[in-house]
Write a structure and sequence with these properties.
Number of domains: 1
Number of strands: 4
Order of helices and strands: HHEHHEHEEHHH
Number of helices: 8
Distance between the termini: 24 Å
Largest sheet: 4 strands, antiparallel
Strand order of the largest sheet: 1-2-3-4
Strand content: 5-15%
Shape: globular
Radius of gyration: 16 Å
């Protein structure tokens, strides 16, 4: 998860990771609906309505070309909001948060079920987990930042890396 403006050194490192892994990665991206089901099952996430932020997130998808390209042809964004309770599997997410999220009282996730794009407020660990779970599509494989974040998320989650 990128929480601050990347440095030239970070981008150079991402480029190296992309050059190393992009040739061996295959598209494996799960849909937004699959990501939503995953967090609902694992974290007992609760869906809630947020019309104002839904409209803002839908606009973000439409104005960001990388996100908009993930929509089905003639499709519209369909954002869904979830809160992660501080109990069960979710308790660890609250315990291990970085200082940047220390003021966030409830971890929330917005998943656009149409494009699969998502945001996480309150937990870098959950963002990394979802990144590793969701995977990458063919467009992502051409993007050094997407590939590097995916590889870093796999490492953080203890998942096997693709063979070179």
């Amino acid at each position: 998860m990128i929480t601050s403006r990347p440095t030239d050194e970070q981008f150079s490192e991402w480029l190296k990771i992309w050059q190393e892994y992009a040739p061996v990665l295959k598209p494996n991206r799960r849909s937004g609906i699959e990501v939503a089901r995953y967090i609902m099952k694992k974290y007992k996430a609760k869906e809630y309505e947020d019309a104002i932020n839904a409209e803002a997130f839908a606009r973000s998808v439409m104005f960001n070309s990388h996100m908009r390209e993930k929509l089905p042809e003639n499709g519209e964004p369909d954002p869904k909001f979830f809160s992660i309770p501080n109990e069960g599997a979710g308790a660890k997410l609250y315990e291990d948060r970085s200082e940047v999220f220390s003021e966030v009282s409830v971890i929330t996730v917005c998943i656009d079920t149409a494009s699969g794009c998502y945001t996480v407020e309150g937990s870098e660990d959950l963002w990394d987990e979802l990144c590793a779970y969701q995977g990458l599509d063919a467009m992502d494989l051409d993007n050094p930042v997407c590939v590097a974040q995916y590889i870093e998320a796999l490492k953080k989650e203890g998942k096997p890396l693709p063979r070179k």
